[in-house]
Design a protein that fits this description.
heterodimer, A: about 290 residues, alpha+beta, 5-stranded antiparallel β-sheet, 13 strands, about 25% strand, B: about 270 residues, Glutamine Phosphoribosylpyrophosphate, subunit 1, domain 1, 6 helices, about 20% strand, PSB_actinobac (chain A)
Chain lengths: ~290, ~270
Amino acid sequence: MEQIPRNSGFALPSAYLSSTTSSFADFLRAEAPDLLPSKRSAGMGTSGGDLDAPHGTTIVASTFNGGVLIAGDRRATSGNLIATRDMDKVYVTDAYSAVGIAGTAGIALELVRLYTVELAHYEKIEGVSLSLDGKSNKLATMVRGNLDAAMAGLAVVPLFVGYDIEASDPKRAGRIVSFDVTGGRYEENAGFHAIGSGSVFAKSAMKKLYDPDADQDGAVRAAIESLYDAADDDTATGGPDIARKIYPSVVTITAEHGAVQLPTEETSAVAEAVVADRAAQQDWRS
Amino acid sequence: MSMPLYASPEQLMRERSELARKGIARGRSVVVLKYRGGVLFVAENPSPTLHKVSEIYDRIGFAAVGRYSEFESLRRGGIRHVDLQGYQYDRRDVSARALANVYAQTLSTIFTEQLKPYEVEICVAQVGANADADELYRLTYDGSIVDEPQFVVMGGQTDAINTKLKETFSDGMELSDAVRVAAEAFRPSASSGSGTNGGSSSSSAQEGEPSKLEVAVLERERPGRKFRRITGAALDALLPARTEAADSSDSGSEGDGNPEGDGKSDG
């Protein structure tokens, strides 16, 4: 294989100039396979589970009237320890999509980074972006590529949300797609979903709080409330940390504004309101 | 019978240059110029889908004239190269200067080693943190590279357009003024006289009505990816003189994937 050119004093090899693929991952596989996340797992054996690499925890997603949102807590754990308190696990991947990650943090971050480059790369080369199903299929392929590592205990499971700009009903154009470690791809038609260690509690909370006709503010409130419930019962999920000013991260996607990470001012206000309401319930009980 | 003909290297290079230059001169023109808010690309392009101007990276844009298949492969190669660099290191480590060097090496290798040189001329532009940091590189078919301080004119009638732009261009123009200056420069006028070089026969089609323009900008103030195409109504608003060309609005809102892509005209 040709050496990959790493500085500026070279001519582009003919593979760069060909029109065989519009995919960045395919291009990497041909030209620089050592940079692909999946290649590293080859010599890993089956003992990855003993590594205690940091794990990301709970992600929730829900649709609302005119869009979709995805929210995650900020904690990463390593065994029984907190590895990071303020990690972002929800990423804007292009103008109308976002991905939340649960599982082995290092691999998941690399996967999201590659996926983001992949979407932009396709868009630049082809002049149009992938369809929403194209995007989620591509992500499924990348999760499947990580299967060897998943067998070794380093599983990564993303949760994909996107706004379908070609949908006939713009109010219902927000979509949620979940994946399993084998690359299985499941459209979540219920309108909400959660992944990660606290997902059981988050999903139960969502079941009661979810309102398909809610506006964006209502949906953000429900998502943060369900994350609070997850943190309440799952040690690996971090609740709003008011002392350190660490609050859940939320990305909303609407037709008008595209995918936007909510500023901390907004998420902190909602999180503090949720905490205050729960405190009020305690007062009423005593 | 078939004896290999001897040609001196000088003559070979001269003939290749001539071939490339003729090919480029037949095409329509592209103007790339700096304005206050970034870099503006204006191309004469009858096709709404086969672009001459394109995004390469966050802050880098690309414009080309000549043979479509050839500059298209250069464009793909450039995008692959910068995406690989940015993935390997960081998005900030990708620069137009490095990319222009790579293109120069590529073009010069093709020019000397292949039977037929690429009949293309390309411009790599980068928008910086302020107006002084904006960069324009012009690359010709043989791999020569020039760093232009104000504007780049490539393609067919470069002499006439160059002369006109030299009179009308000024530093720190607003976007609307810059688009107008560029559009005016394309319009063949009486004062430019015999300024057309080479393809004088093709200019008859461009007489009278202005040809369709492909317009894009690298906007300094835009967060993230700076490249934005200006199409449809937003473009018509910038070109008030072209009211009769209202039929060009069928190119409509073009999917460059940015939600606020076509709405605003000024940045």
